[in-house]
Amino acid sequence: MQLIKTVAGLKKELENKRKENMSIGFVPTMGALHNGHIELVKRSVTENDISVVSIFVNPTQFNDKNDLLKYPRMLDADCKLLEKTGNTFVFAPDVEEIYPEPDTRQFDFGCLACVMEGQFRPGHFNGVAQVVSRLFEIVEPDRAYFGEKDFQQSVIIREMVKQLNFNIQIVACQIVREADGLAMSSRNLRLNEVQRKNAANIFRILNESRNKKDSHSVQAVKLLVENELNLIPELKVEYFDIVDAHTLQSINNWEETGAPIGCIAVFAGDVRLIDNIKYFSPSTK
Fold first, then answer.
1. C-alpha–C-alpha distance, residues 76 and 60, integer Å
2. Where are the domains of the chain?
């Protein structure tokens, strides 16, 4: 595995691989890797001739600058994890490599970006689109891998690929969870012992809510989830919405869509965690 820190260096290596007709898989990350990331990388390694993992904490997608400063950075440890996966290249550029000039592009994702994360993190998805499109231009992958924990993000990236005419297959991979159900996240490193224990209730309550679908209205399920989580010490729901998995728009009754999904953001202390639960069989999506 080779660590590369410059755009020119990575492009040169990938150009040589393309001359050999090798397929390229790509996993964009912000580092502080966990087993969720590693599963994405393993899939990329399995499905492609070579695999690239980027590690770049993107400043343009943080609407809270304190969150940017607190985001964990551990390149050496990340590389040690990646060495065991069969990954080919780690791309770990400085900000100046990705943004030699300020990126002033404004993307229009319509209603996809106005709800949930888009509502509570203004500018977030524009920053995501800036960095992911820039990385796609650099790597030119055949396939790119994203975790479904960031479900809204994966929908928006598909839309971005369509708008920019990238010839890239977006592969969404299932959420990887801890033994107690907590969705794996780099932010989990910031939880103290009590917060970490209580945060496991997010998935427990989401999972239990699936059993209420046939006997409760959409609004009743939403209230139950919010109320139960807000009763747990140090947990505070920022939003919980049940939406159509394709349009990301709120539904008022279960019959409106064949693919309802519940998306949630919860503060555990000052650490913001997101998760989701599908109220449908993935085969029907």
1. 24
2. 2-173, 186-276
- CATH topology classification for 2-173: Rossmann fold (3.40.50)
Note the pLDDT tens digit of each residue in 203-214. Answer: 999 999 999 999
- pLDDT tens track for 236-249: 999 999 999 999 99
Angle between helix 201-209 and 218-230 (nearest 10):
160
Residue 265 DSSP SS3: strand
pTM over 0.90: yes
Alpha helices (runs of H) in the chain, residue ranges in sequence order:
7-19, 35-47, 65-70, 75-83, 95-98, 117-120, 124-139, 151-164, 193-199, 201-209, 218-230
Residue 37 falls in the annotated catalytic set: yes
Nearest-angstrom CA–CA distance, 219 and 234: 24
SS3 178: coil
Catalytic position from the list 34, 37, 124, 216: 37
For the domain spanning 186-276, the CATH number is 3.30.1300.10
